[in-house]
């Protein structure tokens, strides 16, 4: 973008505002009604002795920063002198720069700041001028990124395993700064947070295309650990960026993306926080609330795309879909829906298909049908078990639509404190890994075993890769097998307890977050960009 001129004028509230001509187009960068309401200043870090402000604007931001920062050294960096000269020429606001203690640098002059300890510096982006100076801001941020020698990780929040990962990273002596949950942030807010912290690494649970884009522009290493399927961000063009180091819990997805040309991608199963589980205290009220023969924790799966448009499908397509589901039920050890999806490809088109540039239409449709199959599979499992055994189900309210003879819907189970109690006090915990998770294991497997719970689960190749069937846990083949397993272990307490201890010790020894995160960071530290 080329800034042609700056026009300073009076806003509706009496303050000065401005608009700029960029590439021949006029736009306001402060409000023409109340410009002071456009000013955003993040909290000034008490632990940093230096502040770099990228983008001068009308100087309102600088004025506010100087009020808050005390004796800190301030540098203002701008792409050119347009705003500086415009302020100097205006009698009403020229005092902002003339009385400022800041050092002003323009163009490439920021490269002279070689003496600055970037780990002791807070970087603040002037959001009002970011829309007209993005490329310059990326260039400046990239320059200072090369000066980073710390072990700081900016870890964006995630509702389940983020805290477990952070605890393990701190045990490895990494300096962790916590970011907000990504889903609630705009691109600009994410960029400002990253630029402010200037970490050595950015870390998220599940790959995020927006963060990959920002990391690529700034030159930061972006670590992601995908633990959910489907994660559609993995199929966007940003997955190819060289600054990514991508970990995924399902090796089939890893190999598929490698076949599509994605580099810097590794298999990494999830884990359990044994220390946190061992500290859970069970009281009398917990026994009353959670004790049960059988429990199931998870969504009903009814909130899926198929349910929203199935009424628009022809009778022929619906019949073929039902036939495919029946075929899949006969062998749940294979992802047959993906193999026989061709008939469905002509029936459905997504508006945002093009945004997932490396996900084929057949792959997307397979996910869609598989999510519906997951709903059917879960409903049939709960129907079958609840007609014979006492079962408590935890999850979304869609479970209320199922009325088994011995089913009790318990609402949502809070992840950190309540869920481990469920696992500990259920005689049998059932795990049903979704059909489109082809080889990996969900967190549920490790959480149940790590909580000293008895686990009965369907088959995935990683189950027998890491655990011994009949010793650490029990694998069921089909619903009839599940009924027989449940009946047997409800009446054979000694064997059940032996399996509980074996499974717990296996996880404690080999599958904690301390073990897994150490493996992960060893790969990161020794990683060479491809």
Automatic annotation (TrEMBL):
Q: Which InterPro entries match?
A: YkvP/CgeB_Glyco_trans-like
Question: Which Pfam family would be a valid example here?
Answer: Glyco_trans_1_2
Domain Spore protein YkvP/CgeB glycosyl transferase-like spans what residues? Answer: 378-521
The identity of this protein, by name, is: Spore protein YkvP/CgeB glycosyl transferase-like domain-containing protein
């Amino acid at each position: 973008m080329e800034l042609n001129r700056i026009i300073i004028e009076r806003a509706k509230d009496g303050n000065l505002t401005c608009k700029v001509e960029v590439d021949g187009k006029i736009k306001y960068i402060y409000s023409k009604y109340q410009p002071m309401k456009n000013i955003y200043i993040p909290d000034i870090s008490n632990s940093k002795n230096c502040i770099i402000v990228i983008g001068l604007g009308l100087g309102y931001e600088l004025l506010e920063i100087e009020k808050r920062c005390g004796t800190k050294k301030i540098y203002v960096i701008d792409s050119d002198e347009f705003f500086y000269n415009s302020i100097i020429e205006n009698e009403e606001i020229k005092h902002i720069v003339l009385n400022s203690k800041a050092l002003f640098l323009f163009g490439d002059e920021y490269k002279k700041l070689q003496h600055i300890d970037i780990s002791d510096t807070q970087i603040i982006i002037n959001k009002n001028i970011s829309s007209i100076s993005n490329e310059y801001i990326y260039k400046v941020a990239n320059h200072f990124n090369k000066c980073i020698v710390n072990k700081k990780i900016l870890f964006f929040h995630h509702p389940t395993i983020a805290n477990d990962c952070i605890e393990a990273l701190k045990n490895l002596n990494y300096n962790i700064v916590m970011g907000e949950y990504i889903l609630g942030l705009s691109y600009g807010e994410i960029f400002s947070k990253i630029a402010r912290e200037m970490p050595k690494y950015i870390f998220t649970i599940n790959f995020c295309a927006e963060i990959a884009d920002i990391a690529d522009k700034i030159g930061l290493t972006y670590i992601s650990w995908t633990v959910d399927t489907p994660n559609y961000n993995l199929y966007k063009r940003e997955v190819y960026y060289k600054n990514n180091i991508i970990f995924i819990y399902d090796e089939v997805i890893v190999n598929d993306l490698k076949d599509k040309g994605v580099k810097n991608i590794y298999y990494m199963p999830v884990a359990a926080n044994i220390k946190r589980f061992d500290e859970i205290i069970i009281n009398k009220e917990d026994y009353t609330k959670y004790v049960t023969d059988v429990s199931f924790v998870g969504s009903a799966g009814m909130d899926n795309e198929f349910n929203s448009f199935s009424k628009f499908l022809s009778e022929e397509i619906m019949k073929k879909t039902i036939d495919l589901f029946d075929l899949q039920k006969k062998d749940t050890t294979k992802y047959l829906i993906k193999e026989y999806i061709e008939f469905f490809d002509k029936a459905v088109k997504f508006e945002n298909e093009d945004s997932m540039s490396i996900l084929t239409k057949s792959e997307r449709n397979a996910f869609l049908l598989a999510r519906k199959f997951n709903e059917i599979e879960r409903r049939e499992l709960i129907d079958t078990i609840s007609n014979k055994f006492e079962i408590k189900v935890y999850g979304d309210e869609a479970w209320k639509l199922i009325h088994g003879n011995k089913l009790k819907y318990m609402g949502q189970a809070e992840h950190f404190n309540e869920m481990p109690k469920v696992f500990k006090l259920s005689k049998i915990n059932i795990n049903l890994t979704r059909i489109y998770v082809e080889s990996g294991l969900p967190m549920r497997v490790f959480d149940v075993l790590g909580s000293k719970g008895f686990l009965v689960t369907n088959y995935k190749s990683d189950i027998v890769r890491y655990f011994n069937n009949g010793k650490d846990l029990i694998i069921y083949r089909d619903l009839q097998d599940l009924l027989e397993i449940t009946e047997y272990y409800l009446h054979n307490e000694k064997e059940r307890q032996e399996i509980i201890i074996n499974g717990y010790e296996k996880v404690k020894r080999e599958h904690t977050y301390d073990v897994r995160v150490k493996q992960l960071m060893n790969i990161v530290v020794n990683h060479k960009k491809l």
